[in-house]
Amino acid sequence: MYPFSFTKVSDTRGALAAGRRGGRYIAGGTTLVDLMRETVERPETLVDISDLPLRDVTVTERGGLRIGALVRMAEAAAHPKVRTTYPVVSQALELSASAQLRNMATIGGNIMQRTRCTYFRDVTAACNKRDPGSGCAALKGFNRTHAILGTSDACVATHPSDAAVAFAALEARVHLLGPDGERSVTFADFLLKPGSTPNREQALRKGELITAVEIPALARPLKSGYLKVRDRQSYEFALTSAAVALHIRAGVIREAKVAAGGVGTVPWKLPAVERHLIGERPSQALWTQAAERAADGARPLEHNRFKTELLKRTVERQLRIVGGTA
């Protein structure tokens, strides 16, 4: 480790003041502390925001769901409204990390977590995300777990969050509070693809604080679920995953929300799959045909070519689980 200062705040005004001075926000600390220990991140000041009043899960006026940024992952997963209204979120959270980490980690921290790319976490390796302009060792190195969608010549690291895949599928919004006041951004715009600036991962302005993630009201009945494929059944990040939500009325799919994880530099929305589903009747043939579009635009690397087919199969399986074949 290295010297740094630590301050604890009790209200958002104090948090924003500390953020304007360059402080890094910390709550559960399950990601940032690890990165500091490995000297991947070296903030001069940590600002403990764990006492801020951002711990509520509430139903919005329009019937959506607003989850405070400091709600623990375990709390959100177990919340009755989350479990019954959006089981895809509950399942994604429960398949994340260990029980101990889920009891500490927050929703805001989870979507802010940084990649598990081994080259990013090895300070001796070239990594544009950690050290802009140094190169990307994963491009020519061992890249089995890396991304096949949304990549660039500067970075091929995947985003590790399971919950973020569910939020992306459901087209959630991230609420922010900063020196210029409140604003919200779509989940698709909040997490940034690497392009030529992989070190910039979120659309946060200096000093801004995540206050909540809001899932919009979606048509009922809504069936949803999350499927995670990994090398082992516990405490492992996804090789690929699929978040699916379907609104089926009178035997016809009226609305479809689908996203994938473990394969993209950000949680990857699958609009081509969604378009193929809407207006159709559930069937095994439909699931297979729609899933064929899941890997559109994929750019596999030397060691992760298997992910293209694995992604299609994962999406097909989860469509079948959620939608059935009636």
Automatic annotation (TrEMBL):
SMART domains: CO_deh_flav_C (SM01092)
UniProt KW Plastid keyword: no
A Pfam family that the UniProt record links to this protein: CO_deh_flav_C
UniProt xrefs under Gene3D superfamilies: 3.30.465.10, CO dehydrogenase flavoprotein, C-terminal domain, Uridine Diphospho-n-acetylenolpyruvylglucosamine Reductase, domain 2
Keyword Oxidoreductase found: yes
GO MF term list: FAD binding; oxidoreductase activity
Taxonomy, superkingdom: Bacteria
Entry keywords, A to Z: Oxidoreductase
Positions of the FAD-binding PCMH-type domain: 1-220
PANTHER family the UniProt entry points to: OXIDOREDUCTASE (PTHR42659:SF1), XANTHINE DEHYDROGENASE SUBUNIT C-RELATED (PTHR42659)
Protein name in UniProt: Carbon-monoxide dehydrogenase medium subunit
Organism from which the protein derives: Streptomyces flaveus
